[in-house]
Amino acid sequence: MSLLERIESCHRHDVAGYRPFLVEDRRVGFMRQDLAVELARYPSVFRVDPDQVSVAEHLDTFDYRSAAIDSVMREMRQQGLIRGWRDELFPVAESYGRPPLFDLERAAVPLFGVKAYGVHVNGYVQRDGETWLWVGRRAANRPIEPGKLDHLVAGGLPAGMKPFDNLIKEAAEEASVPKELARRARPCGALSYRMELDSCLRDDTIFVYDLELPADFVPQNHDGEIADFQLMSLGEVERLLAETTSFKFNVGLVIVDFLIRHGHIAPDRPDYAQLAMAVARKP
Fold it and tell me: Is 0.85 surpassed by the pTM of this model?
């Protein structure tokens, strides 16, 4: 698989296989068909039509919607219909920065196909004039992509938390990055993708940060989510992305963006324009 194919895999989807999910007549997601069938059993919470699913109109506030939907999600969890329960709420809104319409258990977010947000940190060091990237390996018990390679720091953005605050928290838990060092992270933009994964539609935006680390810094995991870390040359990172499936599905998108911004992938490459446009593509 080429780098371009790696990026394009993050944009591969067909919404025709899903039902639009609406709140107050605004589409906020694309729902799995089998979930729509299950939700028809809860007419006091969801209105299920052949061509769409919407939250019941009498649930007209954030608190009412959040409580009613959470009750349904917990019942479906007990029935084995929602797996990998996280006890972590994600906000559901029409777009980033808009008031949330309700909060949803993180494990259910892909089932509803609603927008989710996360933070990824490119942790790198400079040695002898070359750039090296710290890469983590996800623990074997992770619910998504266990054992795959990942960023130094990466995490979903839960309800009520700002991206930079989440970065500081995740950096300490995942890689033992001191707060004073983590605060040096530089925001580098946002990357969005919409893809089908495990029969769900993932509609995600990643807030990207670069963090230059001291040459003698060695990350250590504290929360059990990362098995180990490796310091890799950019050439080795590119090779693994292009020739293997070692990396988590969305990490390649962020790393190729890093390789372009840091000049490792330069305009003299024949595929440069294609890669740059593919990274910047919006769903």
Answer: yes
**Are residues 130 and 89 both part of a single domain?**
no
Distance of CA 8 to the CA centre of its chain: 16
Structural domain boundaries enclosing 243: 3-11+116-280
Q: What is the pLDDT of residues 99-140, one digit of tens each?
A: 999 999 999 999 999 999 999 999 999 998 999 999 999 999
Q: Do both 140 and 274 map to the same domain?
A: yes
Judgement on whether residues 266 and 215 belong to the same structural domain of the protein:
yes
One domain for residues 219 and 255:
yes
Q: What is the pLDDT of residues 219-240, one digit of tens each?
A: 999 999 999 999 999 999 999 9
